[in-house]
Amino acid sequence: MALNGSTTNQALLDAQLELWQNTFGYIKSMALKSALDLRIADAIHHHGGSGATLPQIVARIKIPSSKIPHLRRLMRVLAATGVFAAQHPPPATGSSGDDEDEPMLYMLTPVSRLLVGSQNLAPITTMNLHAAFISPFLELGSWFQHEEAPESCELFKHAHGQTCWGQADRDATFNALINDGMVSDSNFLMDIAINECGGAFQGITSLVDVGGGLGASAQAITKAFPGVKCSVLDLDHVVANAPAGDTGVQYIAGDMFEKIPPADAMFLKWILHDWDDEECIRILKNCRKAIPPREEGGKVIIIDMAIGVEPSDLRHKEMQAVFDIFVMVINGKERNEKEWKKIFFKAGFSDYKITPVLGVRSIIEVYP
């Protein structure tokens, strides 16, 4: 009986631990946000591969001395969650090696290495952790209880009184937050996409990056395939901030819901998951009008999630499920293959191919 009771108690405690992991998951997100705000990864990176002590980090991020004990606790969380690594330095010559007061060394991990350097993911991570995207989820339960028309069913608007894209149009700082985030993601992902599935871009001579922002994806394609003439289509306030100089890319102000310029291929990276099915069909129909027949090289190339396309580990499945809720904030949606197929065929396409080579994302080629 004692053994059974002990087993039951342990099961209860394990369940409580799992409950706490979910309850306090936001602490991990806010610890990461704090690390970004304070540029802790840059401070550690400044000291090279040997790592940095807490005093060295403090010297770079310049916080009040009264906050140093709290920073030590923040670093403990960041190390426990794998953002940084922490270890005692090797003992000095002649030292016994058991001095627990020896300052801890903090080092970058594969995760935090993504936050430093010229092409890092700090901007997209900062965007995802911005209060404008986080605060609506505090009202998620009440949002579910409100009856709303499908076209108005946007959590962001419920919280802020305007759509995400409306705020980007009116607020230059918020617009820059989104554009810089998308650039950082493209700088990270496009080289991988081209290496893993470069065949998707071969055989075409022109391409329009639909909703392509500041053109980072189009620039990567042009660099890898100099024979492809790339254009970027986006709204006026986005194109107004396009990089100056010779980028090898043409920028076109326009609305993908109205008309898309003609080219052999349309490219949509992380665009369709922002919209509901009917809006996606409108975009894809305009893409279909803008490309030649399949036998002349016409296609649409999409980078987005395709949930459950092939067996994946628990982390992939969980992130796809979590991301589906995240894009719900702007009335977006992550789709499985059946859902993708439905909107492709409704938009007038005849075939598609999904290549799941980008972690939780896939390259999807769609043919007229």
Automatic annotation (TrEMBL):
Coiled coil: none annotated. Gene3D superfamilies: Vaccinia Virus protein VP39 (3.40.50.150), Winged helix-like DNA-binding domain superfamily/Winged helix DNA-binding domain (1.10.10.10). Residues 20-117 form the O-methyltransferase dimerisation domain. The active site is at residue 273. GO terms for biological process: melatonin biosynthetic process; methylation. One of its GO terms (molecular function) is acetylserotonin O-methyltransferase activity. Keywords: Methyltransferase, S-adenosyl-L-methionine, Transferase. It holds the Pfam family Dimerisation. Residues 138-350 form the O-methyltransferase C-terminal domain. Homodimer. Belongs to the class I-like SAM-binding methyltransferase superfamily. Cation-independent O-methyltransferase family. This is O-methyltransferase ZRP4. The lineage of its organism: Eukaryota, Viridiplantae, Streptophyta, Embryophyta, Tracheophyta.
